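Example record

One chain of 184 residues, shown exactly as stored in the release files.
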Amino acid sequence: MILGRWASVHAMNRASIATTLVLAAVCWPAGPTSAQQTSAIAEAEASPSASIVTIAPSQTSQQHWLEVDLEEATERSRRTRNALIATSVTFAVGAILAGIGASQCEQINSSSVQSYQDLSCNTAGDVLLPLGGTIAGLSFVGMLTSGIMLGVSNKRKREIQRDIRRGQYGRRLQWDIPSGALVF
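Predicted structure tokens for this chain:
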């Protein structure tokens, strides 16, 4: 019973997929259409000499979006700075735990040929040394990552601030050597 249902559903899915593909193939050459096209638009599209006129955004609109971008960049910079502070504190906690764990251990000289040293730790050292080392190691990676991200986000914020200043003050006055005059 269950297998029969699955086969009929599977066949129905194949049929609906095939129908969709046929419909897409038939409608593909038609292109985009709209029920609200008027004859003036259709004539403008049909004539080869019709030109497209675009209007540049106003300065106030551009300033508005730059200010929105600046707010977002400031927020992003604040979050990455908080992440850097948090990972730095976590690194310090991990280093303290590893230091406490290391103080609970003693070095034992090995009498083997390789002459390396072993650590003999009590229970606290066995727990705190690997735990603190792991926390310190992972938070060090987080510190590096968030520090790089903070530098990048601050750079982006400075670029947006520079664009805002350029928009407010316009181009700088500079000396043009070929013409021998001051130009903007």
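Notes: The chain is about 70% helix and 10% strand.
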